[in-house]
Hints:
Residues 1-8 have low confidence and may be disordered. By secondary structure, the chain is of the alpha/beta class. The chain is built from eleven helices and 14 strands. The strands form four sheets. It has a seven-stranded parallel β-sheet, sandwiched between helices.
Amino acid sequence: SIYSFKLAYMKNVLITGITGQDGLFLAKKYLDRKEDNSIFGISRSKNLESFYQNLESIEVKSIDNLNMVNIDLNNKTHVFDLLKKVKPQAIYNFSGPSSVYKSLVDKEESSKTIKNIFDNLTDSLIELNNFCNFFQASSSEMYENISNNAIDENTKMVPNSPYAVGKYENHKKVLKLSEEYNWNIVSGIMFNHESEFRDDSYLIKKIITSAKEIKNKKNSKLQLGSVDYIRDWSFAGDIVNGAHTLVENNAKGGYVIGSGVGSKILDIVKIVFNYYNLNWENYLEINEGLLRKGDAEVKVSNPLKIESHFGWKTSMDFNELILRCIN
């Protein structure tokens, strides 16, 4: 049975999408705390070996209080039954597609999944009269092409991908639910955040993998759509700390979570190629066909709200982040 775990007298925290990078760092955050927390991680993966290896690699002290649950979050009955059994005091929803580019391949399914999972969780909680603290992972992809000003909670949102549309719909629902039920449900608008656990489909890891292959004579070029685009990149562990800060402080509504610092793609290229003692100019090839239509040239956060309300800031700088992703 999926309900074979023991429910202890402790704070129950439910994390959907726990095997992703955000779930990993959040699990560590709770598992390493001295207080008694029982973590319930939802994953569709049958093979969890790499997840446990990743927990070990970030030096999680103990996984005694970790319960892994395999259910279909698209199935409302499964979700309701689990929430009824676990009675969580906090939920972090990191589930669903994480890639904008993958959502463009399966447009309807991506947006539908993002919205459906959120609805199943929140509708079930309302039916159970459990208005526990709830973090919804939202995205900077919801914003339009802003080239001049840093983005905050009041910046106009114009989502231009199925992934962004799904996130935007959920963001609006968070704002509505927080008002309607006086619920500590919060939309954390997460800007680009990376770690060593990203796969090669993500920009930073793509650049690292290409440089490594060039160094080993297995590749001769790094192809990018542009090196001039500017983004706000942070360490995933820092961004997750922001999510944790919001939940632990009973936040509601919307909060931008980012470093507030913009860096060019070229900055990544230079750091990575310098690490491998390569002259990036000899290997870079610009292919504008790789650019996504309507993508913003500049997208940088203004995290003043979370900083002023709760004192949260990122701790790892851009250079450290890139080196961590290499190693």
